[in-house]
Amino acid sequence: MSDTKANIPPTLRPLRVLYMGGIGDVARTWEHWRRGDRDPSQVNLTYSGMFYDVCSELGAEVRVIGYNAREAVIDEGPWRIEQAPVPGWNDGGWRYHRAELRLVMRLWRAASEFKPDVLVMTDIKDWFLVTLLRLRGIRIIPTMHGALWPVGFPPRGFATRLIEKFNAMFWRHAVDATLCVSPECERQVRQISGKLDSPFFQARAQYVHEDFATVTAPKYASPLVVLYAGRLERAKGPFELLDVASRLNQSHPRKFRWEFAGGGTALEAFRQEVQSRGLESSVVVHGMLKRPQMLEAFNRSHIVAVPTSSTFREGLNKVVVESVVARRPVLTSALSNALDVVGEAVCEVPPDNIAAYGDELIRLAEEPDYWQRKRDACETLRMQFFDRDRSWGAALRGGLEHVMTELARRGKLTQ
Q1: How many angstroms separate the Cα of 248 from the Cα of each of 145, 270, 362, 374?
Q2: What's phi and psi for 331, nearest 5 deg?
Q3: What is the pLDDT of residues 91-129, one digit of tens each?
Q4: pTM over 0.85, yes/no
């Protein structure tokens, strides 16, 4: 990877970067980053932490806009971080689009004050809303952590197809580089936009070897321990997994044990559902776990279930990745967008077919060799998630280098 600071003459001014982070707590991550440690709530290296690393290496001036529920403002040297919730962000329909418009207006105000050279922005559905910033001379680098649509379920309604056409124009005329967490994200952009001159940079989530030192490779055993790791929300599929658990308790008693790890608005309702079904002997509900406890949960498991739904625009499901890093086969569908990246470690089921999860678990219980093949595939596939040259930070640096080269050529980085 090239040293951008060395390639830019010393008379040039610092790059000014405006970053729209995601719904995570970018202010808390910055506080940990400034102290030289990691956010203990995350198993992976955070994207915002990698963003801070790259911008620090480049000597950039930075403005960050976050929309986590916790309000925070940090103003220290070249860093300014503003974090506040956006009303309606978790709603559906027109309320969500109104929330996106509010967020883009926040970006407009920040851009007017800060006068950035480049905007790095994470997922929204209506990407085209920031096109006017390009007309003001601001270079734009979208970073896609979610696909444009659930794989296999392209937009069909008039409004969603119209948004797709506007987004296609955005990529053709306003984008300088795109960062993607999965090949599917890139495929969809190319599908709607046709031939593009701007580069794409693929990125893989990153982890720390030492974190997984205590997570040993599993050995086949009975009962098989099935782990669900993720938010406990009805749309995420954990309630449907209880249907599977109930069925298997009847057909294959004492062959499976379940652990559910994650917070969410439906946590208490989920616990009550476990109790009402009489599943307490085979189902354990942990709630939200920090990194050490989450790694212990992986260590107890034999397989991880990821019931991604066609109602959600996945980028590349991080639980799938973490399962492979922990050497655990994954039970999921193509909706996770993981098959391109770790397909050999996946026990694939049809999208939105919860009964197939039960069928596949029965096969895993009855065919140890099948489970072993999937487990063995994790050994080589996991290494890409320790390779910093394939990280989101490396992709970001590639995108910023591309923009800086063009800006320097046009004399836009002069004092």
Answers
A1: 34, 18, 8, 22
A2: -105, 110
A3: 777 888 888 899 999 999 999 999 999 999 998 889 999
A4: yes
Considering only CA atoms, which of 198, 207, 158, 210 is closest in space to residue 49?
207
Q: What is the DSSP letter of 411?
A: T
Does an H or E element contain 266, and which?
none
| 166 touches 125 (CB < 8 A) | no
10 Å CB burial of residue 157 (0-12, 13-18, 19+) is: exposed
Query: Residue 63: beta bridge partners?
Result: 18, 80
Rounded CA-CA distance 179/200 in Å is 6
CATH number of 4-206+387-409: 3.40.50.2000
What CA–CA distance (Å, rounded) separates 377 from 32?
35
Residues 6+ apart with CB under 8 A from 103: 20, 65, 67, 86, 89, 124
| Token pair 């439906």 in the structure block, residue | 266
Buried b or exposed e, range 296-307, using 16+ CB within 10 angstroms? ebbbebbbbbbb
Whole-angstrom Cα distance, residue 202 to residue 145?
A: 11
The domain made up of 209-385 has a fold known as Rossmann fold (3.40.50)
Alpha helical stretches, state H, 252-367: 267-276, 291-300, 318-325, 339-342, 354-366
Residues 313/158, Cβ–Cβ less than 8 Å: no
Residue boundaries of the structural domains of the chain: 4-206+387-409, 209-385
Q: CA-to-CA distance for 31 and 26, rounded, in angstroms?
A: 9
pLDDT at 86 over 60: yes
**260 to each of 274, 304, 353, how far by Cα in Å?**
11, 10, 20
Nearest to 151 by CA among 115, 195, 117, 187: 187
Render the burial of 76-100: b for 16+ CB within 10 Å, e for the rest.
Answer: eeebbbbbeebebbeeeeeebbebb
The model's pLDDT over 143-174, given as tens digits with 9 standing for 90+, comes to 999 999 999 999 888 988 999 999 999 999 99
4-206+387-409 shares its CATH topology with 209-385: yes
Query: Who contacts 368 (Cβ-Cβ below 8 Å, separation ≥6)?
Result: 220
**What is the Cα–Cα distance from 139 to 155, expressed in whole angstroms?**
28
CA within 13 Å, CB half, 85: 7
The answer to whether the CB of 342 falls within 8 A of the CB of 379 is no
